Amino acid sequence: MYLLLSIGIVVLAATCVFLVWRCYYQCRYIKISKRVNDEVLRNVAAYILLVDPDFDVLQTNYYTLTGTPLPSRPPKVGNLLRCKNGEDAGICGTHDLCADCPVRAAIGEAFRSKKGFSGLEAPMVLYTSDDHSEAIDCDVSVSGNFLTIAGESRVVLTVSDITAQKRTQRELEKARIHAEESDRMKSFFLTNTTHELRTPLNAIVGFSELLMTDSAPEDKQEYMRIIRLNSEVLLHLINDLLDLSKIETGTLDYEYSDVELNAVMEELEGGFRIRQPENSPVRITFHRQYPASYLHTDRKRLIQVVANFLSNAVKFTANGSIDFGFEIRGSELYIYVTDTGTGISEEHQRELFQRFTKAGSFKQGIGIGLAISKSIVETLGGDIGVESQIGKGSTFWFTLPYGTQQ
User: Fold this and answer.
1) Span 288-301, mean pLDDT?
2) For residue 157, what are the β-bridge partners?
3) Are 121 and 160 in contact (CB under 8 A)?
4) Angle at Cα 397 formed by Cα 377 and Cα 355, nearest 5°?
């Protein structure tokens, strides 16, 4: 009897030791598993949310990833992520815009259909400060897996920040559109350039032949004038093409010296008046306001920009006047060319200084003169612009830094 009792006690003791040992290792395994799970969730590049049908977040790695304290009660999905709409309303789901929230709609559909979803991309505005004074725009990718735990429906959400990827996509799309537009404009430019070069060349060749066959002195004089004018046009086109090529390669040269502004303007005034036909209805006038005024700049490039403005003014002014000059405004020199021509629409003004853009497709030119002028002015440290109204004329202007020397 005592033997059986002793054997029973030994067996019971052994069983207890085994159970204690089993419980110890089970607890140790649970602790290790929990530590592994915590480390996995802490290092995953996304927020993991366990959500119930009321949109309460029961478990998440959000707090370990962000270092924020756990709340006393489970937050709603939008409140956890600090969605601006949900936070403004106080509780996620009560804002008017929550009805249109794609993330909320996807979660609700997952519970209704008992099926998960993936690849949902949505823009969000999230608060980044506790006082709701600062917010950021971002893009998220959301996936949801439906599951049942102890008879309860749950959805596991994976929320990834894809703001950088979306920004890169948008930049690539802009680059693609820009490249396509650039390719289209260059094709137009080449076609237009071929036409513009052919026009003065045809005139030069044609009137040269007439010059050799026509014996009337007055006709020869007119032919020579036409040949000279078209030669100047051809030279101007070729110079623009060469300058554009140098700008593209960064080799456009600049030579600085002290330039007397009145002398430059008077030289341009005389040159453009000589080119006008007799009895022209357009007056070209330089308005001198100052005595000798000196500017340390590139004389050739300065003349190039003003001459481009004057050439455009002559093209688009059939009657009235073309007035130009400069004003000293403190540490800035303001140079302008004002005409009474056809004017330019606001929409066209925004594109006017881009390459291969012309103020009028029916006028001669290859659409790079103003773009070259813009590059020159910016290199010289100034700014460039235009003010215009349809039917009332235009004022093209640019500024340059101006020192105390005069």
Assistant:
1) 93
2) 49, 144
3) no
4) 55
Helix H or strand E encompassing 156 = strand 152-161
* Residue that has been written with the tokens 């700014």 in this structure: 383
Distance, in Å, from the CA atom of 17 to the CA atom of 299, rounded to the nearest integer, reads 102
- Spatial distance between the Cα atoms of 39 and 222, rounded to a whole number of angstroms: 91
- pLDDT (0 to 100) of residue 219: 78
Cα gap 275→225, rounded to integer Å:
10
Q: What are the CA-CA distances from residue 231 to residues 46, 252, 321, 358 (Å)?
A: 69, 24, 26, 21
Q: Which helix (H) or strand (E) holds 234?
A: helix 217-249
In whole angstroms, give the CA distance from residue 74 to residue 62. Answer: 12
Q: 305, 373 in Cβ contact below 8 A? A: yes
- Please state, in angstroms and rounded to a whole number, the distance separating the CA atoms of residues 187 and 177: 15
| pTM for the model | 0.56
- For helices 299-316 and 261-275, angle between their N-to-C axes, nearest 10 degrees: 40
CB 399, CB 332: distance < 8 Å: yes
What does the block give as tokens for 63?
């707090």
Counts for the chain of helices (H) and strands (E), in that order:
11, 12
How many Å apart are CA 275 and CA 74, to the nearest integer?
A: 84
Helix, strand, coil fractions of the chain, as percent rounded to 5 = 50, 25, 25
Q: Whole-angstrom distance between the N-terminal and C-terminal Cα of the chain? A: 129
> Strand runs (DSSP E) across 190-292, as ranges?
256-260, 282-287
How many other CB atoms sit within 10 Å of the CB of residue 212?
A: 10
User: What average pLDDT does range 121-130 have in this prediction?
Assistant: 89
Q: Do 87 and 127 touch, CB atoms closer than 8 A?
A: yes
Alpha helices in 59-148 (DSSP H): 62-66, 77-80, 84-89, 102-113
Q: Kindly report the average pLDDT of the chain as a whole number.
A: 84
Q: What is the pLDDT of residues 134-192, one digit of tens each?
A: 999 999 999 999 999 888 999 999 998 888 898 999 999 999 988 887 777 777 777 76
Is residue 76 within 8 Å of 93, Cβ to Cβ?
yes
Pairing of strands 47-51, 282-287: unpaired
Task: Report yes or no: 126 and 133 within 8 Å, Cβ to Cβ.
Answer: no
**Cβ count within 10 A of residue 214:** 14
